[in-house]
Amino acid sequence: MTKKHHETKLFVLDTNVLMHDPTSLFRFEEHDIYLPMATLEELDNNKKGMSEVARNARQASRFLDEIVSRAMTDIDEGITLESHGAATGRLFLQTATIEESLPASLPGLKADNQILGVALHLSKKYASRSVIVVSKDINMRIKARAIGVEAEDYFNDKVLEDTDILYTGLRELPPDFWEAVGGEIESWKDAGRTLYRIKGPVCTSLNTNEFVYQEAPQPFYARVREQSSQMAIIETIKDYTHQKNNVWGISARNKEQNFALNLLMDPEIDFVTLLGQAGTGKTLLTLASALMQTIELKLYSEIIMTRVTIPVGEDIGFLPGTEEEKMGPWMGALEDNLDVLNKTDEEGGDWGRIATHDLIRSRIKVKSLNFMRGRTFLNKFLIIDEVQNLTPKQMKTLITRAGPGTKVVCLGNISQIDTPYLTEGSSGLTYVVDRFKGWAHGGHVTLQRGERSRLADYATEKL
Question: What burial letters (b/e) apply to 140-158, b meaning 16+ CB within 10 Å?
Fold first, then answer.
């Protein structure tokens, strides 16, 4: 074996890695990949159906077919992956039966244990080389370590190792900020807003559409309109905490809600992500701004609301009715928020409220995510709820549905992930927040304070 092989690692892939990300075959750079026969068998067993897992299994099989059919060497010597992006390693397939004695507590018929047996055999065969099992399954990794085989999670799709450093969309300015940029400042007024052009090293750390603030007796709240390494233009924002600026009867209760409404009500912002715990007002603020811009300002033709249908408890079986009726049980949050928004219209009395509710419901369409592929939405206000349960690939599929004049708002709580194999670092929500950071037509705010009730706030803190 060459010196190069001593330095590169040999990764044994579990099936769930390929079903989570089919492109994982090309994500191990200069290292080699080994696929046990059990992995290929499981891939074959999971390829039927219309689920995301089945689609990924089929795509992984297509990639493998393409690699193997182009092979210039004998499979036993490994197939080069160099024609695919940054991958320079080789792909090895199990071509012979491997009889490795596993501990008696691990029965050999289970696919996981067969993969572990292959990994144990390889680690003994290539003693000078690092052989590592890669799996999204925690128990598989524990079992591997228990029998003396190295094991890792698949990290390549993780945007961040630590979600505490995820972009929040807001930044507190230091007390001496104005003194630091004092000699290099210009200000002017435009459409009732004050704009400041600042220069200095602080500009490099700012992002376009990031909110900056200083808490003081006269607080300063502004948004970064333009930014480069040498210069930034910041603009004071509209105060949505004041009742005269209410949006469909709703006023912001804290600075983060104020920042969120500035993004939601700006027609120049096409993409908004709102992240926050339960009760921070994500859905209420989004629906209020959607109704205002659709019914009163007529910027959008209708509101489309969708969410990931993953039950928290046991599934309730098949639901009868049309697409909208099937989505009904998942849309309790929508109805709850519409009740709040409808109560803000006191002038029309009960009849007026009923008429308003019917008008609102006629302009809101509830859609299932399953039927989004191939659609194009024109002049729509698209709200996607519970996006923390989507993979980065699913997020791409949804966001690329937006046609001209459509605004997309993604809502989620990073600490409530219900999808197997998704973590805070690899969630589609984390992915889009990080990738859209600093885009001129996109913005993000992490909402901090719960505004439901003192009971909900206390429960969030103590339970």
Answer: bbebbeebebbbebbeebb
Q: Which domains does the chain have, with CATH numbers?
A: 3-152 (3.40.50.1010), 163-236 (2.40.240), 244-462 (3.40.50.300)
What pLDDT score does 314 carry? Answer: 44
- State phi, psi for 340 to the nearest 5 degrees: -65, -45
- Which pair of structure tokens corresponds to residue 35? 């696929």
Residue burial 177-196, b: 16+ Cβ < 10 Å; e: rest: beeebeeeeeeeeeeeeebb
Contact between residue 363 and residue 390 where contact means Cβ atoms under 8 Å apart: no
31-72 per-position pLDDT tens digit: 999 999 999 999 999 888 877 788 889 999 999 998 888 877
- CA 181, 182, 188: angle at the middle one, nearest 5? 95
- What secondary structure letter does DSSP report for 133? E
Other residues' Cβ atoms within 10 Å of the Cβ of residue 67: 18
Do 287 and 337 touch, CB atoms closer than 8 A? yes
Q: Cα–Cα distance between 21 and 18 in angstroms, integer?
A: 5
Q: In what order do the strands lie in the sheet with 131-134?
A: 79-80, 90-93, 32-35, 10-13, 131-134, 150-152
pLDDT tens for 384-419 read: 988 998 888 888 888 998 999 999 999 999 888 887
pLDDT score recorded for residue 292 = 93
The H-or-E segment that residue 395 falls in is helix 392-399
Q: Residue 221 to residues 52, 70, 237, 413: CA-CA distances in angstroms?
A: 43, 59, 6, 25
Write 64-69 long-range contacts (CB < 8 A, 24+).
64/25, 64/35, 64/40, 67/25, 67/91, 68/93
Q: How confident is the model at residue 316 (pLDDT cuts 50, 70, 90)?
A: very low
Amino acid type, 456: A
| Coil/strand/helix, residue 377 | strand
Q: What is the pLDDT of residue 345?
A: 56
Alpha-carbon Rg for the chain in angstroms: 27
The neighbouring-strand residues paired with 381 are 303, 407
| Biggest CA pair distance of the chain | 84
Name the phi and psi angles at 171, rounded to 5: -145, 130
pLDDT digits (tens, 9 = 90+) for 241-269: 999 999 988 999 999 999 999 999 999 99
Which residues on adjacent β-strands are paired with residue 23? none
Model pLDDT, residue 361: 77
Model confidence, pTM: 0.75
